[in-house]
Design a protein that fits this description.
Blueprint (H helix, E strand, L loop, with lengths): L2 H13 L1 E3 L5 E2 L5 E2 L1 E3 L2 H4 L5 H12 L5 E5 L4 H13 L5 E5 L12 E3 L6 E9 L3 H12 L3 E10 L4 H9 L4 E6 H19 L2
Parallel strand pairs: 5-6, 5-8, 8-9, 9-10
Antiparallel strand pairs: 1-4, 2-3, 6-7
Helix pairs in contact: 1-7, 3-4
Length: 199
């Protein structure tokens, strides 16, 4: 990992990993797990936003005109990338895919600054089965966007990224971190905190 990746991984491990073995979490897939990733507790942190913006931007620069995904997990990621892209002189606009169409006004599924036929990157905070990301990809295509990249912060390594890669192409889908990488950082920090408390 680069220094910036290590910094973001540490923030995710500290703020977004929840462990509850006696009362497992129910995931959106319906499965249960002792571990739960609430990435919004990291993606909305001031110190995380520049890291997210840069790391995702570096992976989509030159390939897309817009970045977004299913609200609300994708929203802070897309906005961080849009802001960072402006500082680099290569602006990428942000958009958001609704879970339900707006019931009034323009009644859109997709909100934001993306233009028709734009090349887009779909972003996601955590991928488990990939279902929510695939829904976002479908909505983007229905809007006439060309999905050129998919970037997730964390791949839970439960098959979701493979499904996404099958939908967009193997070389167009990636995750910044695998669950095993975040788990390793979380365990290391946990041991370090325990050692500090025992002194």
């Amino acid at each position: 990992m680069t220094r910036r990746e290590e910094s973001l991984a540490a923030l995710l491990a500290v703020h977004s990993v929840f462990y509850r073995p006696r009362r497992p979490f129910v995931l959106s897939s319906g499965k249960t797990s002792a571990f739960y990733f609430d990435c919004r507790r990291t993606t909305m942190l001031p110190e995380a936003m520049p890291l997210i913006g840069r790391l995702v931007f570096e992976r989509i620069r030159g390939a897309v005109d817009a970045v977004g995904g299913l609200t609300m997990g994708a929203d802070p990621i897309a906005c961080a990338v849009a802001y960072y892209s402006q500082t680099r002189g290569s602006p990428i606009v942000a958009f958001s895919v609704r879970k339900e169409p707006k019931s009034h006004g323009m009644q859109r599924w997709v909100e934001g600054a993306a233009e028709p036929e734009a090349r887009v990157a779909v972003v996601e905070d955590v991928v488990t089965t990939g279902e929510s990301t695939l829904r976002a990809i479908t909505r983007c295509r229905e809007e006439g966007f060309r999905v050129e990249r998919v970037v997730a912060l964390v791949d839970r390594e439960e098959g979701g990224m493979a499904r996404i890669a099958a939908a967009v192409g193997e070389d167009r889908a990636l995750a910044l971190f695998r669950r095993a990488e975040i788990d390793a950082v979380w365990k290391r920090l946990r041991v370090s905190r325990a050692a500090g408390a025992s002194r």
